[in-house]
Amino acid sequence: MAKQLLITLAVAAIVIVIARMKRARHESTGAEKSSSALPETSRKTSMIVGYSLAAIMILATAGVSWMRYQDANAIVQVEVVDTRSGERTVYQVRRKALGEREFRTVDGRVVSLGASDRMERIE
20, 75, 100, 105: which could form a disulfide with 109 (CB 3.0–4.6 Å)? Predict the structure, then answer.
């Protein structure tokens, strides 16, 4: 929720900066060139702010993507319990390879659960 709010605010800030840059450019072409130092400094400031916001957006996206990648590749232990015999087997599984009734272990084995099997994730 907070990530979505921050992304929305960042996009809104970028849009505002771009609109101000366009307005400053439009005013400088339509106005007299007597005081050209003021629009030039405001344009540079707008560009710096725009590039800074773009860099922050790129870094935030990279950070969120990296955290999701790490979370998806985290290894969890899954315990499969056969309800008929009570036998328990523990497997190591990457979180992204864990499904409802089937999963792929770290060493590459695909385990499908039967109707009488129960799966428990150990965190």
Answer: 105
* Domain extents in the chain: 2-72, 75-122
Number of C-alpha atoms within 13 angstroms, CB side, residue 1? 0
pLDDT in tens, 79-89: 999 888 889 99
Based on the number of CB atoms within 10 Å of its own CB, is 52 exposed (0-12), middle (13-18) or buried (19 or more)? Answer: exposed
Nearest to 45 by CA among 17, 26, 10, 11: 17
Rg of the chain (C-alpha set): 27
Q: Is 112 helix (H, G, I), strand (E, B) or coil?
A: strand
pLDDT of residue 70: 94
pTM for the model:
0.58
**What are 37-75's pLDDT values in tens digits?**
556 777 788 788 888 888 888 888 888 899 999 999 999
| DSSP bridge pairs for 80 | 89, 119
Q: What is the DSSP letter of 60?
A: H
